[in-house]
Each structure stands twice: as C-alpha cells, then as structure tokens.
Amino acid sequence: MRKHGHWSGHAQAFFGGRGRAAEAPSTNDAAAFIQGALPDDWFTGPADVSVDRDEIIIVGSLPSPKLDEGATDADRAAAEQGRIAAFRESTRERRIQIARQLEHRYQRKVAWGAIAGDTHELFTTHSAPVMTRLRQPERKVLDTLVDAGVARSRSEALAWSVRLVGQHAETWLAELRDAMGAVDELRKRGPEL
C-alpha cells in the first residue's frame, strides 16, 4: 500500500488527517457576506438568510405588483407569481455566480427564494438524505400517512411530520437554537488547553 498515493491524499482531505470528517467552514459571517454580495436593487430590504449543515437559503422580498383597484385575490396571486417568475428568470446568471462563490466559501449548497405580497416561493432547493432507524410504532405512523394518501412514501411522510412539528413548535425550536448558539459561543471563549 502506498503511503502518499492518490487515495491517501483524498482521505486526508476528507478526514482532516485525524480519522474524522473535516468540519465545514464557519458560517458566522454568512448573512453579512451575502448582503454585501447581493445587488442593491434585487429586494426591497435585506434578504432573509437561513443556514444549516447542508444548505444556505436566501429569500428576498420583491416589490408588490401594481394592480387596478378592482383586482380580485386571484388576480393578485397571479401577479405575484408573475413577479417572482420574472425575478427568477432575469437574475438567473447572477444568482448562479453568487451561489458558486458561496458554495466555495462555505461548502454548502445554495438555494434561492422570493416573496411578493402573500406569495412565497423557494426555487433551486436542496434535499438532503437523512438516515434514521425507526421502531415499529414510528414506522406504523409513517405507513398510516402513506395508506391515507397524505404522503406517497415513508420518506415523504417523515418530511411531512417534521414540517408539522416545526410549525407547531417554532417558538420552542427558536429558543433551543438560541441556547445552542450561546453554548457554542461559551465553548469558543473557553480556556485554551
């Protein structure tokens, strides 16, 4: 076995030379970096930047379309969808350039979205596989959702369940994220060994 061969270099890069996966770069400055990278005329205010281990999602508010006073809710929804579609098409090349830069800097996929009035749309989102082991009672829950037509597969049923928990526990989850952030900050300020 070669000591400095092709595979040893890849393994060292992946495992960081210590037998474990290398950590992705910090995203502490991601929101500020992204605000600086975005053209000033794209959104009506600062973009909402959401980051997790796999993906950065950038969502901005677009100006609401101007409609006649007699416009119906259906007209308004169609105009908002048109505004988002126009934004998506007209900014495609620049969004790809920004995404490549961010993917290189933060080693995460980049997704985009836009809001126009009451219409919210995400595009180019990343679906990350998540491995889990479920016991029979949990599998029965997923199978019931599939059998009832709520979801097409166990995977879709699990995603539906996670969204439901997220909607109903958002305040608690936000508090938990804040607490974890405080722990991370304390850990960083800890004594050097």
Strand order of the largest sheet: 1-2-3-4
What is the residue-averaged pLDDT? 84
Cα end-to-end separation = 36 Å
Number of structural units classed as domains: 2
Number of strands: 4
The run of helices and strands is HHEEHHEEHHH
In helices, the fraction of residues equals: 40-55%
Largest sheet: 4 strands, mixed
Plain-language structure description:
- This protein has helices at 6-15, 30-37, 73-90, 92-106, 136-147, 154-168, 170-188; strands spanning 48-51, 55-61, 109-116, 119-123.
- By secondary structure, the chain is α+β, with helices and mostly antiparallel strands.
- The chain has 2 domains: 26-128; 130-193, no CATH class.
- It is globular and about 60 Å long.
Write the SSE topology.
Layout lengths: L5 H10 L14 H8 L10 E4 L3 E7 L11 H18 L1 H15 L2 E8 L2 E5 L12 H12 L6 H15 L1 H19 L5
Parallel strand pairs: 2-3
Antiparallel strand pairs: 1-2, 3-4
Précis, in short:
The chain is α+β, with helices and mostly antiparallel strands and 193 residues long. It has seven helices and four strands.
